[in-house]
Structures are given as C-alpha cells and as structure tokens.
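Let's practice the habit of predicting before peeking. Look at the sequence and jot down your guess about where helices and strands might fall. Then scroll down.
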Amino acid sequence: MNDWFEAEQHVERAQMLSESQRFAEALEEIDAALATNPHNPSWQAHRGYLLEELDRFEEAAGAYETSLSFEPEDADVTVALAHVLTRLHRLPQALDLLEELAKRHPQFEPAYCHRIAVYAELGRHDQAEEMFYLAQTLDDSCPQCFFHMGASLAARGEFDRAVFCWKRVLELDSDAIGVRQRIAQAFRAQNKLDQARDYYLREWREDPGNTDLLYEMAEMAMDAGDAAGAGAKLMQIVELEPDREDAFFALAKSWLARQDGQKALQALEKAKALAEDTSELRGFEQCMGEALLLLGRPTEARELLEKAAEKETDPLRAQLLLGACLLALEKPEAAADVFRRVLAKDESNFVAHQQLAVCLMRLGKVDSGVKHALAALTAKPDFTPAMSVTAYGFLRQGRWQEARGMLRRSLGKDPSPRDLKQLDAQVRKYRIRSCLRGLANLFKISYWRRSN
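Done guessing? Here is the structure:
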C-alpha cells in the first residue's frame, strides 16, 4: 500500500515540475512512479509528453505506444503519437493513425487538424487544404489549423495567404511562440525586409534567447548589406552558445564583408576548431583564402582559393578572389586568364572586367584594358575602381582631358582614396607638360615665320 501511495506522490511532483518546465526532473519522478505501476496508461502518456519536451522523440513515441497498448481508444494520446511520428518524418504511419482515428471519432476535430500538417509535409497540398476546410466545419477557431494551413501555403509560395493564416493564429492565441517568426520568414521571402524585421523583433521580445531566431535576423541583415548589424547579432549568439560553429563561420563572413581579415581569420579558426568536418561549412576554403588575402598573405591564400574555385559552392566569387590573389603575386597573365573564365560565364560581371583591365594594363595592353574598364562602367556606372582604372588608361593613351573628367567623376563619388588623388596630380602634371609643349611649338612657329 505504501508503494502505491509513493507512486501517486511521484506523479503529483512530476505534474508540478512539468508546470515549472523542469522536464528532466519531472521525468525522474514519472519513471519512479512507473517502476511501481508500469501499466498505468496516463502515466505512460505523461512520460511521452516529457520525453517530447526534451526532444527525445523516439522514446516519446515508444511511451505513447505503450500508453495506447493499455488504452487504445484514447484519442488525445493517438494525436500526440501522430505528432511525434510527424517530427520523426514517419509520415505514412502518422497519417494512418489519424485516418483511423477520424473513422472512429468523425467529430473529433484534431484528427483533421493534424492531417493538414502531415499532408503539407508530404507535399500533398490540395489534400491539406481540403482537410483544413473539413476541420473548419467542426471548429473554425482552432489556431493550430491556421498554423498548419499557413505552412502549406508558404511551401507553395503563396506567402500573402500564409501571412493571413498566421495572423489569424495570433488573433486566436496571442501567446503563440514561433508564429511571428513564420510571418517574418514570409515577408523576407517576398523581400519585404522592413516588415520582416518588425516581426522578427516582435518574436524576439516574446522569445528572448532564441539563438536560431537571432541567426535568421543576422542572415537577413547580411542580405541587406548590413554586415555590422549581422555581426552584432552573431556576437550575441556566440556569447549565448559558444560551441556553435555555424555562428562563428557566419561571423567570419560578416568580418570579411567589412574587410577585416584579422577578425575574420580568428572567427574561421574558431569555427574550424568546433566543426567535426569543415566540409559542412560550405565555402570554408574560400573564406579562409579571402581572409589571408586581406592580410597580405597571397602565397598562403592561393592554394585555398584554387581549391575553392574548383567547387560548386560559389565558383565565380572564388575565381574573382583567385584572380586578385594572382595579381597580388605579380602574375597578371595568369590572373587575366582567370578573369576571362569568369566573363565567359558572366559577361556583365563588372568586377571581372575591371580586374582584367588592371591585368592588361600591367601587361602593356592599354587599349584593351581601357575597353574592359569601360565595360565595367557600362555594367555598373557608379563603380569607382573602374573609374580610376579608366582614368589611368586614358592618361596612358594621352587623353588627359578625358582622364581628368573621369577622375572628377570618381572623386565626386568618393573623394578619399589616396591613389585617385595621386593620379589626379599626375593628370595635372601631364596637362602642364602638354601646355608647355604647345607653347614651345608656338614659339618655334613664330620664330620660323620671323626668320623667313
């Protein structure tokens, strides 16, 4: 009799611990109770719930199955088992359970609601929508139905309808976690970044400490060209979870975007130390090569960039970096070949045109270099590096007025670069020399006329 009383006490403590979200301790209490009475279906179901909260889904499925073996008609446990099977991607098994449940209990709305999620996972979206409308006839205010339907619509690219469904979830359950994040993802997919940012921030206020959410926000900031903003969020992640190699790798990319090779290299080395296999970090060699190149270590960068250029991750970007590396190693002929390969795949690549122009001018092929520099400006009229190369080419061709005009245009965009100011000084000197030569010629002509 004492054993049974103690078992009940364990269950009561498990319930209180569950309400406090102390799931691991609650599981110990339930296991202690089940040691006395392993045939209690509600205790087994409670054990399944706790295991599910601890992300131990295989064990949770086993606990729910044990509960149903004692009480096979329990509809709620059947739905719970179907949900876990869906998480385990055992979708046909989950679907069979829910279909059988609907036959036994045709008015039980969850048997329809959860089939929306399963059909969506299977890519059978017409059936998901059909199931949604069947569920609506039984309960038109079920937030889970709208959530699952939103996921199905988003998978089809129908983002406006998906957002409508998820906003309806928030109307029905304002405390729902993860829904604002889904809305943000839908807005981001439509490139509505201000609206996406707003919903990400709302979700962050509801779920502070969610590092996956922060990671998405960092990705969006990088896509928008805000490398500093992305870096700030990634720093938060690595402070909260110092063993996340993906966050360190993304942080390295943010430093590369800010042209800080030293900090990028430090983040890359940390990611490498944490990762079991750097092949899981797509583009690792490319980033490492870029960091070394920024640090003025082109010899070390070359081998990494050659490997990266052979891969399919981002071959054009890797080839551009490899070309720049070869230029830094004073190999303009080899660099020119790399940039020509880029242009063969992307003829409007303005960086490749500009860099090829530099190579050609170093090789003494000024006219060809000017053509590629002008092609870069055709593709991107505000690209200042191409303006400076064009100005230099004009100067070499003796077209000092056009060189001066191009320099004015470039300095108007960015008045700070030292090399442009030096080139401007060269143009001024060239202009003075040209004027002096012109005056000398006039004196010669005047003297010849007077002497004749």
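How did you do? The radius of gyration is 33 Å.
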